[in-house]
Amino acid sequence: MFPLQELFIKICGITNLADAELACSFGANAVGFIFNHSSERYIPPDRAISIINRLPEHISKIGVFDGAKPHYIQNIIKQVPLSAVQVLGNYGPDDLVDFDVSVIKQFQLSRSFDPEIMKNYLVDAFLLKDQNVEQDTAQPKKYHWDVAVKAKEYGRIILSGNLNPNNVEDAVRFVQPYGIDVQSGVELKPGKKDVQKMRDFIASARGVHLTYGLNDEES
């Protein structure tokens, strides 16, 4: 599901076909669908299916779950043709080995986060969501990006949280992550993307020279 030596870009919180198609046309590698009923960006399985069926095969379709029971996640996987699931919550390493799709384990990125916990998880990637501030900011800051750099020792890192067109270039240059994830930073309102912000975000991220994949191949 993941490209080689290319920044993996995921546009999350997709609720409609138009936004999904635009994300793909601008160069995103993945779109994310939120299956938590309490979320403003919740999407019913049947609507997610209708969108996925219209997207290119090479685009990763990722189901996002926050604290959901494993049986609920498995039920969604049976209904929706997902490429991967992204899970946040109190899941132990043994809880994430029985899925028939790729798994992304999400952790909240903070000063107190200990990346060593990641070594126990046999997953395809880790999404680290910076929780420094609740609102996306237009000012480029490093937040807890230094912690994310340390976390790269334990696997593929997808950086998330507080990213937007104005700071994504700094984030990618500083962390050199495997991938990035954005949601509210490219929205007009919850569930509806801003076309210009989404285009600018992807273009800015793609403009940074990456050494991540190159170093992996050489080692």
What is the compact description of this entry?
This protein is α/β, with parallel strands linked by helices and 219 residues long. It is 28% helix and 22% strand.
What does this structure look like?
With 219 residues, the chain is an alpha/beta fold. It has one domain (8-218): Aldolase class I (TIM Barrel, Alpha-Beta Barrel). The chain is built from seven helices and ten strands. The strands form two sheets. The chain has an eight-stranded parallel beta barrel with strand order 1-2-3-4-5-6-7-8, surrounded by five helices. It has a two-stranded antiparallel ribbon with strand order 9-10. Helix 4 (145-151) links the parallel strand 6 and strand 7 (157-160). Helix 1 packs parallel to helix 6. The radius of gyration is 16 Å and the shape is globular. The two termini are 22 Å apart. Residues 214-219 have low confidence and may be disordered.
Largest sheet: 8 strands, parallel, barrel
CATH class: Alpha Beta
**Which structural class is indicated by helix and strand composition?**
alpha/beta
How many distinct domains? 1
Biggest sheet: strand arrangement: 1-2-3-4-5-6-7-8
**Could you spell the SSE succession in H and E letters?**
EHEHEHEEEHEHEEEHH
Q: Count of DSSP E strands? A: 10
The chain-level mean pLDDT equals: 91
Helix content: 25-40%
The CATH architecture classification is: Alpha-Beta Barrel
CATH topology: TIM Barrel
Number of helices: 7
- Name the beta content range: 15-25%
Radius of gyration: 16 Å
- Taking the alpha carbons of the first and last residues, their distance comes to 22 Å
Contiguous uncertain segments of 5+ residues = 214-219
| Basic shape | globular
